[in-house]
Design goal:
The structure holds 2 protein chains of 2 kinds. Chain A is mostly beta strands. Chain A has 4 helices and 18 strands. Helices cover 14% and strands 50% of the residues of chain A. Chain A has an 18-stranded antiparallel barrel. In chain A, strand 11 and strand 12 form a beta hairpin. Chain A is globular and about 70 Å long. Chain B has 4 helices and 13 strands. By secondary structure, chain B is of the alpha+beta class. The chains are: A mainly beta, B alpha+beta. Chains A and B meet through strand 6, strand 7, strand 10 and strand 11 of A and strand 1, strand 2, strand 6 and strand 13 of B.
Chain lengths: 448, 242
């Protein structure tokens, strides 16, 4: 039994949490769909009455089964000193609570994410505010806010190289909520007649000090970020920057435009000055180099006449590793694992494990990727069912992940998703060296 | 004597037909359906072939010719999702995703037969020219042609109640004349402020056999709004307008 320090749950509370989640999900799943009443068009306008407060959120259960690859480099960095079963099961439960209060021009909002997980490490739980802020809107042109917030910059679906003050998205599940950072800022909006229809300016102050935003970057600084938005000639255009000393300075732009009634294109471009990249060579020598990095994304979203949606994106990650740099890392991991197996010396493999965190082990750590998602709404007239297939292709080493999924949302407020993922790649390739070859997950989510 | 009378009546009818301007009639239809700037609540119901339903409640504001914004109030899974239309540009803001994404007019944010162009509809006279006008005993029949290629339906055939000057039925067609969907306007009600209009729009489509979608209108009233409300940056705050 492992407890993460500072967690909200005790062991006993974890059990109650789990029981409550199970019961509510059972009730949700067993709830019958709305009765047949096709000609009953009643609209009770009391449904539209506004309350000064709001409470909502979702609960989720997600069991996952992993088919492990015991020869993979990232398996070795994670499991070198323990024996785990294969296939390996994991159970994740989430309760996300959203609460808001409005008074006059003021609003308070919080989104708290509570998780309870059963992994190879045993039970663990966590509770943290993803967002918690106060805002004031003295006029439609001006909104000021302070607290823990997400900015969500960028137009890309799977990646956002210009999201300078957000945590990175997981391209495997880009629609997931993200935890914000503590900051203060405002939105100033102006509308015009003519080719420039809208201009808005959104500056933020993001302090990193006294434990606040400690994982953003170097402590002891107040960072400044801003975004200017233009709706010009029916095209969304943003220019943004981040400066301060917690992270290297960076600036960029993005755009999005509808080409036809069923085709949208978008793109992002970001430049980072003096980005510090940690590398390890095949002999285990760690070095830090400074590079001026450029990252970019270009993509489209297309809806066919039979309701098939295509999302295609190409992403160049200027802060990523080349194929040979990644190969050096995997070579070192294999050597370090051999040393551990033969001598019991865990030092080298622990060094590799440390470099995995936030560097070689982060989602899409290399340079060039292609993302394709194809989803079909209600094929063959099967109601409420949306199948989709997603692939992320590493263009550098030609490894890939392939994820077919099936979503059912036939019951109001309930969403079921069955998703499989197969990772394909040679040795020393990104997806070939992931800790698992395949996984299967069921996500049951109930909104309230 | 009878012949002379018939000739006179015929001339009279012809003269009255020429007196009707199709463009003016279409603008009159628009103003009878809603003020130029307004707020409105709607319930959208998707009815599946097996009779099961999915319901959505949407608060909408509109200003001028080409600005429409809305936010979903229910069900819980959709609450807080907001939509914005500025002319041919449309966006969807999903609170979980957190940023507005562009959507296209032929997509549907709620599924069902209504697409985004139906849900975020502009005035007909802003998107269509009158290509033909026919007078029936109780109705006018307007043949409408889209002003640009970016309009969701290239042609509309609109039946208009002569007395109330509101549509009773609209057929939406492609450029080649293929029927995409039919809108049926029903249950005329007095919304106050001089607006007596159909409170229910039903739609079906040969492309979605067995499916039906319904839009019910409530609390329609004129409202002045700032232009800045109809911007991407304001989308997370649309519910504060209620």
């Amino acid at each position: 039994m492992q407890q993460i320090p500072g967690v909200w749950f005790s062991t006993e509370r974890s059990k109650w949490f789990l029981c409550a989640m199970g019961l509510l999900l059972f009730i949700a799943v067993m709830s019958p769909p709305a009765p047949d009443a096709a000609d009953d068009y009643a609209f009770d306008t009391s449904e539209t009455d506004k309350k000064p407060y709001s409470l909502g959120g979702y609960m989720e259960a997600k069991p996952t089964l992993f088919a492990l690859d015991r020869d993979a480099a990232l398996y070795k960095t994670r499991f070198y000193n323990r024996d785990v079963s294969n296939p390996l099961g994991e159970y994740d439960f989430t309760l996300q609570l959203d609460a808001g209060v409005e008074w006059s021009i003021f609003k308070a909002f919080t989104r708290v994410n509570n998780t309870l997980d059963y992994t190879y490490d045993g039970w663990s739980s966590d509770s943290k505010p993803y967002e918690a802020f106060l805002s004031a809107k003295p006029s439609p042109s001006l909104t000021a806010a302070a607290g823990k917030m997400t900015a969500k910059w960028g137009k890309g679906y799977a990646w956002n190289p210009v999201a300078f003050i957000d945590r990175p998205k997981d391209p495997d599940d880009p629609a997931l909520n993200l935890e914000g950072y503590y900051m203060a800022g405002f939105d100033f909006i102006r509308s015009f007649d003519g080719p420039l229809k809208t201009f808005s300016f959104s500056p933020f102050l993001l302090p990193v000090d006294h434990g606040l935003n400690h994982d953003f970057g170097e402590s002891g600084h107040v960072n400044v970020a801003a975004k200017a938005y233009f709706l010009l000639w029916d095209t969304d255009i943003d220019f943004m920057f981040l400066t301060g000393n917690s992270r290297p300075d960076r600036f960029g732009f993005d755009f999005s435009r509808n080409i036809t009634t069923n085709l949208e294109i978008h793109g992002e471009s970001a430049w980072i000055d003096d980005f510090r990249q940690n590398k390890i060579d095949a002999a285990g020598r760690v070095s830090e180099t400074e590079i001026d990095a450029w990252s970019g994304l270009i993509g489209l979203r297309y809806l066919s006449s039979i309701d098939t949606t295509y999302i295609l994106e190409y992403y160049h990650n200027g802060t990523g590793y080349s194929e040979s740099e990644a190969k050096d890392f995997y070579t070192y991991v294999n050597r370090a694992d051999d040393i551990y197996v033969n001598t019991g010396n865990a030092g080298p493999i622990e060094k590799a494990a440390n470099l995995t965190q936030g560097a070689y082990g982060r989602p899409n750590p290399m340079r060039d990727y292609l993302y394709l998602r194809i989803s079909q709404k209600e094929p063959f007239d099967i109601l409420y069912v949306t199948p989709a297939i997603t692939t992320i292709l590493n263009l550098d080493d030609r490894s890939l992940s392939l994820s077919p999924e099936l979503v059912y949302d036939g019951i109001t407020n309930l969403e079921l998703r069955l998703k499989g993922t197969v990772l394909v790649g040679d040795s020393f390739s990104e997806y070939g060296e992931k800790p698992n070859d395949a996984r299967l997950e069921l996500r049951v989510r109930y909104y309230f | 004597m009878l012949k002379i009378l018939l000739v006179l009546v015929s001339f009279g009818c012809a003269a009255s037909a020429y007196a009707i301007d199709g463009g003016e009639l279409l603008e009159k239809v628009d103003r009878h359906l809603a003020p130029a700037s307004y707020e409105l609540y709607r319930k959208l119901i998707n009815i599946e072939p097996n009779g099961s339903k999915k319901e959505y409640v949407l608060f909408t504001v509109k200003k001028g010719k080409d600005m429409v914004a809305g936010v979903f109030l229910s069900p819980a899974s959709e609450k807080g999702r907001s939509t914005l239309r500025l002319g041919d540009n449309m966006w969807l803001y999903i609170p979980n995703v957190g940023k507005p994404v562009r959507i296209t007019s032929l997509q549907s944010v709620i599924g069902g037969v209504f697409n985004n162009a139906d849900i975020l509809a502009l005035d007909y006279s802003d998107e269509y020219d009158v290509a033909g006008l026919e007078e029936l005993e109780k109705e006018y029949v307007l043949d409408l042609k889209a002003k640009t290629k970016t309009v969701a339906y290239d042609r509309l055939k609109m039946w208009v109640d002569r007395e109330k000057v509101v549509p009773t039925r609209i057929e939406c067609k492609t450029e080649a004349g293929m029927l995409i969907k039919t809108l049926y306007f029903k249950d005329t009600q007095d919304f106050g402020g001089g607006f007596v209009r159909p409170a229910v729009i039903e739609t079906d489509s040969p492309l979605y056999k067995g499916y039906k979608s319904v839009m019910i209108f409530a609390k329609l009233k004129a409202r002045e709004l700032a232009d800045e409300v109809f911007t991407l940056t304001y989308m997370p705050n649309i519910e504060s307008l209620r």
